[in-house]
């Protein structure tokens, strides 16, 4: 994997306060983080620490109370926990939805969407409804819908959590391979340590709220024919990260 020297996402001193009738709550505190083009980075931390909030700040849905985020917000895609496919539309029609919303439904973009469906095994299911597809195929269709809009950065907010364990392992690997082939920088929020190690170039550990960057692990396991989970290094990374989360 070739990584550029200049970060595609830069966070400098990012903090966020939530305001309510009860007062002010510091959710995120002084986050400094660089993410580079072509990376797959996972963000992991205790429940409620602000992982998804961090994605919302990167995307521009939330503005930080302090600090700055340097990122091209015009080229960000999002994948959520549920595939959000519309049940009354065909798979092709669902895939074209993002382009419709962005008013980019050109012949060139439609042809690209068709090519993605063919390339990643959904060509023969273009006219099917979402209910006719497996959970893994639906997530693949949701990913292709996002890729059709040509994102440079993809934010993934626990997109595999609704799948059963075996499907989750298979689909997450498929998604990782697709994103690497398409050259998309990816930032995943997950509670699953094994998933983070398996998919990522780096794993960012957040502390309890207010979230700060507790540690960053570079995952030095080759992604060749041998599955990462079978590497003797895998349990070592798992133990380190588990101890830090505790």
Helix content: 25-40%
Kindly provide the radius of gyration, computed on alpha-carbon positions and rounded to a whole number of angstroms.
Answer: 18 Å
Strand order of the largest sheet: 5-6-7-3-8-9
N-to-C SSE string, H for helix and E for strand: EEEHEEHHHHEHEHEEH
Question: Which blocks of ≥5 consecutive residues have pLDDT under 50?
Answer: none
What's the story with the biggest beta sheet? Answer: 6 strands, mixed
> Termini, distance in Å?
32 Å
Structural class label: alpha/beta
Count up the helices. Answer: 8
Overview of the molecule:
By secondary structure, the protein is an alpha/beta fold. It has 8 helices and 9 strands. The strands form 2 sheets. The protein has a 6-stranded mixed beta sheet, with helices on both faces. Strands 2-1-4 form a 3-stranded antiparallel beta sheet, with helices on one face. Strand 8 (202-206) and strand 9 form a beta hairpin. Helix 5 (135-147) packs parallel to helix 6 and helix 7 crosses helix 8. It is globular and about 50 Å long.
List the helices and strands and how they pair.
Layout: E1 7-20, E2 23-36, E3 40-44, H1 51-59, E4 66-70, E5 76-79, H2 91-95, H3 97-101, H4 107-119, H5 135-147, E6 153-157, H6 165-182, E7 185-189, H7 193-199, E8 202-206, E9 213-218, H8 234-245
Parallel strand pairs: 3-7, 3-8, 5-6, 6-7
Antiparallel strand pairs: 1-2, 1-4, 8-9
């Amino acid at each position: 994997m070739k990584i550029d020297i200049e970060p595609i996402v830069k966070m400098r001193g990012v903090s966020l306060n939530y305001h309510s009738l009860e007062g002010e709550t510091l959710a995120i505190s002084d986050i400094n983080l660089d993410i580079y083009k072509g990376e797959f980075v996972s963000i992991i931390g205790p429940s409620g620490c602000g992982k998804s909030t961090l994605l919302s700040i990167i995307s521009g849905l939330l503005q930080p109370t302090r600090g700055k985020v340097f990122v091209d917000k015009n080229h960000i895609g999002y994948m959520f926990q549920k595939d959000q496919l519309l049940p009354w539309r065909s798979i092709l029609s669902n895939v074209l939805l993002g382009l419709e919303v962005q008013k980019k439904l050109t012949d060139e973009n439609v042809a690209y969407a068709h090519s993605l469906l063919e390339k990643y095994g959904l060509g023969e299911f273009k006219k099917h409804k979402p209910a006719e597809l497996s959970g893994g195929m639906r997530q693949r269709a949701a990913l292709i819908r996002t890729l059709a809009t040509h994102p440079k950065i993809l934010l993934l907010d626990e997109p595999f959590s609704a799948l059963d364990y075996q499907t989750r392992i298979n689909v997450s690997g498929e998604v990782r391979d697709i994103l690497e082939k398409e050259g998309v920088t990816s930032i995943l929020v997950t509670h699953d340590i094994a998933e983070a190690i398996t998919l990522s170039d780096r794993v960012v550990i957040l502390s309890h709220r207010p979230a700060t960057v507790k540690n960053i692990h570079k995952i030095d396991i080759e992604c060749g024919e041998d599955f990462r989970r079978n590497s003797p290094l895998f349990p070592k990374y798992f133990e380190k990260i588990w101890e830090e989360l505790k």
